[in-house]
Specification:
The protein is α+β, with helices and mostly antiparallel strands. Helices cover 17% and strands 21% of the residues. β4 and β5 form a beta hairpin. The longest helix has 9 residues. It is globular and about 40 Å long.
Length: 89
């Protein structure tokens, strides 16, 4: 089993993205810079460079600790609780 910088990465399971864009921005008719997906429930939200920062808002609302980038060519995840970035396989 791989060692992880935080305990939250050890408890991940496959999730399906909830949308093809930021769920909340799509409903609002707003735009985003980059997309992030919650690795607990699959919620897709916009990054902190986006005006609405929905991925971070999702963490504050749900306490789901880990998001991943869903940008092409990027394979990293971020743990909000431990403030750790990990490369994904």
């Amino acid at each position: 089993m791989a060692q992880h910088a935080c305990k939250h990465f050890a408890h991940l399971h496959p999730v399906t993205p909830s949308a093809k864009g930021c769920e909340e921005c799509l409903k609002m008719g707003s735009s985003w810079v980059h997309l992030r997906m919650c690795l607990v429930c699959g919620h897709v939200g916009c990054c902190d460079s986006s005006p609405n920062k929905h991925a971070t808002k999702h963490f504050h609302d749900t306490k789901h600790p880990i998001i991943r980038s869903v940008e092409p060519g990027e394979s990293w995840a971020w743990c909000f609780v431990d403030e750790v970035v990990e490369e994904l396989p």
